[in-house]
Amino acid sequence: MTPTLIASSAHLAGGSAPDLSEVEFGLMIASHAFDRWTVRCMAAAGLPDLTPTDVMVFHHVYHRERPKKLADICFTLNVEDTHIVSYALKKLDRLGVVRGERSSKEVFYSVTPEGAAILKRYGEIREQCLTAGLDGPGGGGLEFSRQLAHTLRALSGLYDQAARAATSL
Predict the structure, then answer these.
(1) What confidence tier does 63 reach under pLDDT thresholds 50, 70, 90?
(2) Total domain count for the chain?
(3) Residue 3 has pLDDT above 70, yes or no
(4) Does residue 80 fall inside a structural domain?
(5) Is 136's pLDDT higher than 80?
(6) Residue 35 falls within a domain, yes or no?
(7) What is the extent of the structural domain holding 118?
(8) Is-contact 98 61, C-beta < 8 A?
(9) Mean pLDDT taken over the chain
(10) CA-CA distances (angstroms) from residue 155 to 20, 60, 150, 164?
(11) At 111, is the secondary structure helix, strand, or coil?
(12) Going along 39-105, which residue ranges are E strands?
């Protein structure tokens, strides 16, 4: 007996790759759950009213504790519209958790000590509320996380290539 697919769009499940529709549905609901988690965890850490993009940018600016340029942040986070990231950086700067410093023609962004304290608290909340579930029933553990990360990066490449192809149609 063939299992019933949980497709987001039945009209896409009838094509040559019906399982892909189920994957896309899973990505959609996981994406929304992840966004909700990051925003609520950041609020619990002391910084409410951020969007998922604000949180993503904040984390990346702190990555390896090295200042970053707008273009590099956009490239790494795979965001085409620099205005979206620029807006997030301005918002984080107004909140006092990120600062931009001009060096010749470039602005380099880094996290302030206040921002670092909030990100430390975010990490503590993440440990308390999220990572403990990796070892629980159905969690899959660390190896599952590695495999999933690899799969998501591969899917990102596949969807980016498809987006480029669709643009040329």
Answers:
(1) very high
(2) 1
(3) no
(4) yes
(5) no
(6) no
(7) 49-127
(8) yes
(9) 91
(10) 11, 21, 9, 14
(11) strand
(12) 68-69, 98-103
Distance of alpha carbon 75 from alpha carbon 64, whole angstroms:
16
Token pair 């990102």 is at which residue? Answer: 156
Task: Give me the CATH number covering residue 113.
Answer: 1.10.10.10
Instruction: Sort 38 into a burial class: Cβ within 10 Å, 0-12 / 13-18 / 19+.
Output: buried
Q: Percentage of residues in the chain with pLDDT exceeding 90?
A: 74
**Structural tokens at position 125:** 């909340």
Distance CA 145, CA 148 (A): 5
pTM for the model stands at: 0.88
- Residues 28, 29, 33, CA angle at the centre, nearest 5°? 120
Residue that is written with structure tokens 């390896």 in the block: 64
Q: Is residue 88 part of a domain?
A: yes
**Could you tell me if residue 139 is inside a domain?**
no
Q: What pLDDT score does 7 carry?
A: 60
Residue type, 147: Q
pLDDT of residue 38: 98
